[in-house]
Prior knowledge:
This protein is of the alpha+beta class. It is built from 16 helices and 20 strands.
Amino acid sequence: MYRIADLVKELDTIECTTDPVKIRVKSRDHYAVSPLLKQMLAGKTADVVASPKTKDELLQLVRAAVKFGIPITERGGGTANYGQSVPLRGGILLDMSGYSGIVSLRPGMVRAKAGTIMATIDEEARKIGWELRFYPTTKKLATIAGHVAGGQGGPGSVVYGTLRDRGNVAAAQVVTMEAEPRILELRGRDAQLIHHTYGATGIITEIEMPLAPAWDWIEAIVAFPEFMQAVRFGVGLANAAGIIKKLASIQEWPTPQLIRQFAPLVPEGHSIISTMIARESWEEFQQFVAEFGGTIASSSPEGAGPYGAPITEFAFGHALFQIQKHQPNRAALEGFFRGTDLIALIERVHQQVKSFGPMRMELIRIGGEIVGTGSPYFLYESPEQMAELVRLMQTAGAGVSNSHTSNVRAVGKKEVTERDLAFKRDVDPYGLLNPGRFEADSRADERFTLELPTDSWDRRLA
């Protein structure tokens, strides 16, 4: 379909491969966490993998791709859950993992090349007394551009919000998909033009991001006899501005048993909240736990817990990875909980859907307000069963974005305005960037055969 041999010849010294095994590996991400995406994305691969290491090589690649009309799908660490980096229409898989390195680092701010691993940035920032405000739970593998292009929040979002909140992305540099590509610098709110568009609105080359003061963190698992007891404590902790924290991840029993590493630590029948507390706030935190009738089942310095990995790797979507190691047919949704009485809303939804499985709830901040994200961990049976769970959650007052699809509009986490569409047309006039994922004309978006009756986040944020 595409003139791949001519492309490879034109790229000359740029690292490329048409090895089918390497292409198959690079054409996958973490979409297999979804039973629907496993069906929808099966067999979709690139025709060639290109791995530029310099900006000149990247510009050469773009020129050649436009010349031959070959689409480009960008890939960082391959940690995405929606299949964002799986080429829907073949072409070039642009591997940005080698385009890495910190461009600048100063107190309060870091700028890094697209393929720089988040954990590397955090380690370097800590050397000068700072750290990332928040990061994906896959920070050991995820790249900074992948985080911005396909992510939202993570550990730290309970304080600093998400990538869509003002001030969390300072700037982005992108390359346009044109015969003579331009290099654009997007600063402040302009950087939102490339956030959560899966690389369809320019090839990200650099990201500038504000940092937070680094703390000496203590990881803790707090156990409660009842799920709603854990919820009330979690909401109280999230709203306790004076207690310095990074995480508020609530898991209903028997989730602590489904996560094998937690099973020896958590008392039978207890729900838990996993958290990270600054050592300076630890004494106050212990008193707070006691007031709510909780028990600290485990505490340890950051990364040194008895569960064998950072506690962040048992939160957000990463918790489902842990569960699926032993129960691969477990699945989840991305419910969105926002209301004047958050605790009552969570309880109402919980009562409506608790028969599906144990509930998980991440507490984060969006627009300055504490909200919840989560759903039951259910044993997947069919798309109809999943759709019924969506409807029950919506009936009880929650919104549900679609984590079981693979384009921007269908997922529902991106606010798409006329300005976004104009920018898309400007930077990708031939529609060659990750085609099918986010098109200026929505009718050109990929249509997936398995769909859910889900919401756009923006209807819930209004």
